[in-house]
């Protein structure tokens, strides 16, 4: 294969976690040059790129209140607009919708409608007010059941991991809008993190919140950080499960494949994660969150899978009519 150039536009933290240097060495053996893009410098001067892989979620969020971040974002968008032949993984509009839990939860509801009874998403309501009467009315109208899990509207950054469990109407006073309220589903304290890389997906099991008695009660609101609760080594009291309870079955492979296929088509993305649980009563696969370009911790095949996807995109890009073929097969479009 002729030499190709793939630019990576990642934060310093993301580059280190991914070990981009090691990935670059792997790509070099396949005739692919990996280049770290410096957003603070003109991208045009950094050379031609066949593909740009990025995680600009930080920049997008910060651009709303920071002019410097907005300038960096404008520079990136200006470059991809003037280089339509460059494939962007993943398109900025697709990424933006996952930064907003109001938008991503609507996507989850749509997926549930598409796939029928095999997959569900818990009922939820969008909250934009502190008025308790309005919040309670919305909860009742949507038929949400206690306990409720409360999540920030912004789905990225350290604050996005700050969540709470609300056990009754009085606890709704702890809601901090804008946020999402979602019926909590007992799932045996097991979270399945599904990591997607193009046509491949990998499932890694993580600790999660323990079961709680259904229905309203006087228990005080529990505040927690989801990142800390679901770390591989987590031993939080919130994940401690009664050993006498039966184990929850593993997700069906066929259902998982259908879910990933549907999400890829709906999102137009190749690098994302989806958090799923299995309802302890119905054994239904339940989607609870979608994540942008996750860390892929625990996925030993990540480098090989990412390289295969990059090679696939390069090959389809060089074939005649590759754009229509890519779109029909669920490949991300170059950019929007």
Automatic annotation (TrEMBL):
Domain Inositol 1,3,4-trisphosphate 5/6-kinase ATP-grasp, chain residue ranges per copy: 118-311
Coiled coil: none
Residues annotated as binding 1D-myo-inositol 1,3,4-trisphosphate: 14, 55, 161, 193, 291, 295
Cofactor(s) for this UniProt protein: Mg(2+)
Its job: Kinase that can phosphorylate various inositol polyphosphate such as Ins(3,4,5,6)P4 or Ins(1,3,4)P3.
Family: Belongs to the ITPK1 family.
Protein name, per record: Inositol-tetrakisphosphate 1-kinase
Organism name: Chanos chanos
Classification lineage: Eukaryota, Metazoa, Chordata, Craniata, Vertebrata
């Amino acid at each position: 294969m002729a030499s190709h150039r793939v630019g990576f536009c990642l934060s310093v933290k993301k580059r280190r976690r991914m070990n981009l240097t090691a990935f670059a060495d792997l790509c070099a053996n396949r005739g692919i040059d990996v280049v770290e893009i410096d957003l603070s410098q003109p991208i045009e001067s950094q050379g031609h790129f066949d593909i740009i892989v990025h995680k600009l979620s930080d920049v997008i969020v910060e651009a709303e209140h920071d002019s410097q971040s907005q300038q960096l974002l404008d520079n990136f968008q200006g470059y991809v607009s003037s280089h339509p032949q460059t494939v962007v993984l993943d398109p900025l509009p697709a990424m933006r919708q996952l930064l907003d839990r109001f938008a991503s939860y609507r996507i989850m509801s749509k997926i549930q409608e598409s796939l029928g009874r095999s997959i569900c998403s818990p009922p939820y309501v969008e909250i934009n007010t502190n008025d308790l009467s309005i919040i309670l009315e919305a909860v009742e109208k949507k038929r949400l059941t206690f306990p409720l899990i409360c999540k920030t509207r912004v789905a990225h950054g350290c604050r996005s991991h700050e969540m709470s469990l609300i056990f009754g109407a009085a606890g709704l006073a702890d809601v901090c809008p804008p946020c999402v309220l979602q019926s909590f589903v007992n799932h045996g304290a097991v979270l399945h993190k599904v990591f997607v890389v193009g046509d491949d997906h990998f499932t890694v099991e993580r600790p999660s919140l323990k079961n709680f008695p259904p229905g309203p009660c006087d228990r005080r609101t529990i505040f927690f950080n989801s990142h800390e609760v679901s770390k591989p080594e987590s031993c939080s009291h919130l994940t401690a499960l009664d050993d006498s309870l039966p184990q929850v079955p593993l997700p069906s492979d066929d259902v998982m494949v259908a879910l990933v296929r549907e999400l890829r088509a709906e999102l137009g993305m190749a690098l994302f994660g989806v958090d799923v649980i299995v309802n302890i009563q119905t054994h239904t696969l339940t989607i609870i969150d979608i994540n942008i370009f996750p860390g892929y911790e625990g996925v030993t095949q990540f480098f090989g899978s990412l390289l295969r996807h990059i090679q696939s995109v390069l090959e389809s890009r060089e074939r005649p009519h590759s754009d229509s073929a890519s779109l029909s097969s669920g490949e991300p479009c170059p950019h929007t």
